[in-house]
Specification:
About 50% of the residues lie in helices and about 15% in strands. It has about 270 residues and is an alpha+beta fold. Strands 1-3-2 form a 3-stranded antiparallel sheet.
Amino acid sequence: MRPKPSIPEHIEEHRDGRWRREGARQVETAADAERFVEQVGFAACLTDSRKPGPSLYVAVCGRRDAVMPRNVQKDPEASLTWVTKDAVIKRGKVYYGKLARGKAMFVAPRMIPYFHAIWGMRKSEEQARLSPAAQAVLKVLRREWEMATSDLRQDSGVMDRAAFTKAIDELQAAMIVMPSEVLYLPKFTYLWTLAVGRFPDGLRQRIKREVALREIARCFLAGAGLTIPGELARVTGLSRTEAGLGNRALVAEGFARMRGPGVYELAGGPV
């Protein structure tokens, strides 16, 4: 097997600054989190240093070696990340949902059209591509606009908990439905809403797939400084083939240079 390329220290330092892996710039509030997401373009929620890419949890910790403890309930950094995530969802200024491969991600408004071009679907495609359970849930939400989990299960007729969760995840992955608020009293529940209600401009744009791949690759490379084989695919949920197409498009326009198989670096070097 080909050895995995290591990340040079100057690239790690570039990522420290861009991904808020420094104590002086760590995320402490929902407004901080929104600025962080806008700067990086997209970020995972609760991943730690064992997974590549920008992460809200790592940015809350403010260090590159942050590891999520087993007992997250008693960990102050994990708790702050969770509370901050809930506040960001309620404020509705950045996109949040389980996207490709079930990854819980934040997406800056400027990147929504590109993500939707890859993972979204047109209304005319829903009947063929969505499961019957997902279609039932969507039909109710289009009528009521916003509903709590228990009410949505009852009104849609998808009473099996696992089937409902799968349907919601399916609708989130297609960027059709997203959580709008998290409630803890009188019991824990999510409120669900139509994504187009919060981000109509971004979700109604028509973007060519090749353009979307290039811009997602550009966004990641600008923050990462350099990307190694499979890294963009793991971070975004793209296939390796499509991640490669995006990176090679950046090389073609001079934004990036190829240092080796699957290794791409900013043409001008990290700044």
